[in-house]
Amino acid sequence: MAVRLSGIPVAREMRGRIQAGVEQLHQIGQIPTMGIVRVGARPEDISYETGATKLAQSLGIAVSRTLLPGDVGERQLLEVLREVNENQRIHGCLLFRPLPAHLNTRAVLGALSSGKDIDAMTGASMGGLILPGMETFPPCTAAACLELLRFYQISLPGKHVAIVGTGAAVGMPTAVLLMNLGATVSACNVLTEPRRLLDLCQESDIIISAVGKAGLIGREHVRPGQIVIDVGVSFDDQGKMHGDVNFAQVEPVVKAITPVPGGVGAVTSAVLSAHTVESALRANGLTG
Fold first, then answer.
1. Which of 212, 207, 197 is nearest to 254 (CA)?
2. What confidence category does residue 130 fall into, taking pLDDT thresholds of 50, 70 and 90?
3. Cα angle at 22 between 18 and 27, to 5 degrees?
4. CA distance linking residue 111 with residue 93, whole number of Å
5. How many alpha carbons lie under 13 Å from residue 97 in its C-beta half-sphere?
6. What is the pTM of this model?
7. pLDDT score, position 82
8. What is d(CA 230, CA 246) in angstroms, rounded to the nearest whole number?
9. Distance, CA of 227 to CA of 241 (rounded, Å)
10. What is the mean pLDDT of the segment spanning 218-224?
11. What does DSSP say about strands 241-242 and 234-235: parallel, antiparallel, or unpaired?
12. From CA 197, how far away is CA 217, in angstroms rounded?
């Protein structure tokens, strides 16, 4: 039976670090504030927003939400982001993605100030992944994967990691962060031939799946001794959350596995709060 890599103790450990920064800001009369901009009402966005808001407020972080309909015009959305940029009380902004197809994603993301980009939505933030030393933040979910691996003392240098899903929000930046830490990474996407996907997953020491397709990773993809990190989130017709991994098939085989819910998602919300506080510290000339 596999060890369950719960995200709850990871997030609990992070709370202490976050609260230290919050207290530092409160001492100078500053309230770290997270701006949330959501277009539409995707279940996975609402689930993330609910958890992130609850955690942030419990830590003394204020949350300013702007909820827009799915058919919002691009001009209106750009105006919302302009207001976020100019509002000195908002220290970091989370804009849910993917955006509806009628919106120009590149133009919208480019409108956000890089100084308030706490989820690596802008080109400057993504560039910071490749050029260490820049004061930018990695995507929260990608950073959460690394926080979880660090907490459970899972060594990365020299390990082979198969990443399933190469989206800009999770898969691709996670690959870069892992390579920066000395891991060997195989990145698989929708064009990867199924037989090759099986081989790469079975050959790897760690599998990270971030596709959003329930049951994508099954018994045939894994072998004993592996670590499986399930980042995928999807909902069935009854509103039940599922990961990418068929937990019932995979858990009896591998060494360790994250649950869904209660795995990476729990850490992602903590990372979002941590980035908000760090952004506030920087804005006030304080050391995080």
1. 207
2. confident
3. 150
4. 12
5. 20
6. 0.92
7. 96
8. 10
9. 21
10. 97
11. antiparallel
12. 10
- Whole-angstrom distance between the N-terminal and C-terminal Cα of the chain? 40
d(CA 76, CA 39): 11
Element (H, E) at 63: strand 62-68
Q: For residue 288, is pLDDT > 50?
A: no
Distance CA 166, CA 171 (A): 4
In 10 A of CB 37, how many CB atoms? 20
Asked if 125 and 92 count as a contact pair (C-beta separation under 8 A), the reply is no
Give me 18's structure tokens.
Answer: 């976050």
* CA pair distance 104, 38, nearest whole angstrom: 15
pLDDT tens string 22-77: 999 999 999 999 999 999 999 889 988 999 999 999 999 999 999 999 999 999 99
What's the length of the chain?
288
Given a contact cutoff of 8 angstroms between Cβ atoms, the answer to whether 156 and 182 are in contact is yes
